[in-house]
Amino acid sequence: MIAADIQDHVAELDRRVVKIEAHIETLIRKDWAFIAGKGSALLPGIGATIAALLIAAMPELGGINRRHTASLAGCARIPESVEN
Known about the structure:
It is a single chain. By secondary structure, this protein is an all-alpha fold. The chain is built from 4 helices and no strands. The chain has one domain. Helix 2 (32-42) crosses helix 3 (48-57).
């Protein structure tokens, strides 16, 4: 009985995940012109989902240069301190 309840609950959660992912994809497609405009500036060949994810995480993209973008993402090279 408990195992069946758990399986039913997992199945319901799986259905909800599918619905949520479909909704996210709909939103991405709806705003594709905006996302593509910013996404193409990020990296050639970047897809809609990754572009949307990056824009959600870093809305500054498209308005800053590549060095600021790398710094924002935590990927910028930081020169070692030179001891005097």
